[in-house]
Amino acid sequence: MTELIVTLEDSASATIIRKAISLLKGVKKVVAVNRIPLSKEQTEQLDRVQELATLKKNWDGEGALPISKAVIKNAKSIITKSNDNVLSMWTFFPEVNGTILLQKNDNSACISIGKKSFTAINGDEVKAQQPFSAKEVVSIIS
Amino acid sequence: MVSDKEYCARLLRKIWIKNGVIAASAFNLRPNIHETYISLLREEHLSYNKDLKSITKDDPIIVASLLTGNVRTKQIYDNIKLDIKEVDNNRLRSHCGLFIFVDGKQVVGGEPFITRSGEPVDVFVLQVKLALAKMASSNINTIQRK
């Protein structure tokens, strides 16, 4: 099955376009998805994570690994689930083993985001390695 | 012997600084070579500038300065001690190392606190790295190559 995704800037024409596409030969189903637009902070943080995704092997000149795709996906899911006030207090940094560090700007907390798990320190609160959950991480940073 | 009053510099990659925040990940014991200390350069050593320019092509060069006495007296957990000591290096005369000890035993990159590919950093290591980043955050220096 092949999917065709059409993005509309203006929803006013959505009904007509949807009807027109459904009349095309071979079209089985037309699904409309309403997406909430990203905020400025979310966009900036996603750009930062995308910057980390472009780091090549040996990006630190000392054998660092590129950031894992699974880690990038995890970081992005944290961003899309967080609000601007929270996100603006945190910064994403690369780790040499291909993971990402989400560090609070006042240095009071940080989260290490792995492929399948994460660790966290938030003041005196410590979370040893546990399965990755964007929802859980968002609750820690909020 | 590195005196308590000496400042030691950690070379920072640009990606490790954002909005005035220094990444805790800038302070690494590299797991792939089982590194035994975090590399620093003694800022008051005669060969400091020459050494700094020889280890990076960056321009400007960005470093974070750590006061040795502050590192040695930093309280993280009762069983963790940090120290800065000279290391033998014929090429880099100002080279010194930041050593981490837990219960008197020296921590080595990659063991026993696993930081394998894609695995999150151990919380103990995170505490040390974050403490160092916090200490360094007020002392970021930019040095022009010329």
Helix content of chain B: 10-25%
Give me the oligomer status: heterodimer
Instruction: Tell me the total number of β-strands of chain A.
Output: 5
- Strand residue content of chain B: 25-35%
Largest sheet geometry of chain B: 7 strands, antiparallel
**Series of secondary-structure elements of chain B, N-terminal to C-terminal:** EEEEHEHEEEHE
List keywords for this structure.
heterodimer, A: 142 residues, alpha+beta, five-stranded antiparallel beta sheet, 5 helices, 5 strands, B: 146 residues, seven-stranded antiparallel beta sheet, two-stranded antiparallel sheet, 9 strands
Please describe what this structure looks like.
The complex is a heterodimer of chains A (142) and B (146). With 142 residues, chain A is of the alpha+beta class. Chain A has helices at 14-22, 40-53, 69-80, 84-87, 134-141, and strands spanning 90-94, 100-104, 109-113, 117-122, 125-131. In chain A, helix 2 packs antiparallel against helix 3 and helix 3 packs across helix 5 (134-141). The longest helix of chain A has 14 residues, at 40-53. Chain A is elongated, with a radius of gyration of 19 Å. The mean pLDDT of chain A is 90. Chain B has 146 residues and is α+β, with helices and mostly antiparallel strands. Chain B is 18% helix and 29% strand. Chain B contains three helices and nine strands. Chain B has helices at 48-55, 68-72, 123-136, and strands at residues 7-12, 17-18, 21-22, 38-42, 61-67, 80-86, 95-102, 105-106, 140-143. In chain B, the strands form two sheets. In chain B, strands 1, 4, 5, 6, 7, 8 and 9 form a seven-stranded antiparallel sheet that branches. Chain B starts with 6 loop residues before the first strand and ends with a strand. In chain B, 36% of the residues are buried. The chains are: A alpha+beta (142), B alpha+beta (146). At the A-B interface, helix 2, strand 1, strand 3, strand 4 and strand 5 of A face helix 3 of B.
